[in-house]
Write a structure and sequence with these properties.
Blueprint: E1 4-7, H1 19-26, H2 30-41, H3 47-57, H4 63-72, H5 79-88, E2 92-100, H6 101-104, E3 114-118, H7 137-151, E4 158-162, H8 168-171, E5 176-180, E6 192-194, H9 199-207
Parallel strand pairs: 1-2, 1-4, 2-3, 4-5, 5-6
Helix pairs in contact: 1-2, 1-4, 2-3
Length: 210
């Protein structure tokens, strides 16, 4: 039976950073976004409030900023190698993230079968953000279920990779999970734990459990 590998983005594929932080760095708004990230990590605001506030910060965002943020992000090494290996094995790989879809979907070009993020208006913004399109931890499970149907697998065939509270719901419903440079929220919950910059090593941990 094929497996579906589900990857978080922020803090997992991007090492010790997030897509919004990398985008804001291009606009000189790093400090403001770091404050928002502290607020959401402490539970002072939720995903819709966070997304609404970064959308307001990014009033001058252009496609050039997004491209520069993507190219300059501190990515884990070996991402494309891992996804090639997954495809070669007849398995599937997808990215499911709370970050903006216009950033997340760029990973399709690296070999992901699917990439899902929070729905933001097209860049440059001419429309308001609809909070209903902002993903949550629970939404990650819903998207995983839809992907299972699409690829003809079950939750029992899934492997999840993540680092923080937004991955906890998904980790609780799949049989194999890898905590990648994870915070306290995933301690004791993951099947495996990896600390480092090499996604190939994290992937090998998942391969050791069928």
């Amino acid at each position: 039976m094929a497996r579906l590998h589900l990857f978080d983005l922020d803090g997992t594929l991007i090492h010790r950073s997030t897509a919004p932080l990398e985008i804001s760095r291009q606009l000189g708004l790093e400090a403001e976004t770091m404050a928002l990230e502290r607020a959401i990590s402490l539970g002072h605001i939720g995903s819709p409030e966070y997304a609404t506030q970064v959308h307001a910060l990014w009033a001058k965002l252009t496609e050039a900023h997004v491209a520069a943020a993507f190219e300059g992000a501190p990515w884990m090494s070996g991402i494309e190698d891992v996804w090639r290996e997954i495809r070669r094995n007849g398995d599937y790989c997808a990215v499911v993230s709370l970050s903006p879809s216009f950033f997340v979907e760029r990973l399709i070009s690296w070999g992901a079968h699917a990439a899902h993020g929070s729905h933001f208006p097209a860049v440059p913004f001419t429309e308001p953000l609809d909070p209903a399109g902002v993903l949550s931890a629970a939404a990650k499970v819903q998207i995983a279920d839809r992907l299972c149907t699409e690829f003809g697998v079950s939750r029992g065939d899934c492997v999840a990779y993540g680092d923080s509270l937004s991955d906890k719901d998904l980790f609780s419903v799949v049989p194999v999970s890898v905590a990648v440079n994870a915070d306290r929220h995933l301690r004791g919950l993951a099947t495996h734990s990896y600390v480092g910059r090499d996604l190939c090593a994290a992937y090998q941990l998942a391969c050791s459990t069928r």
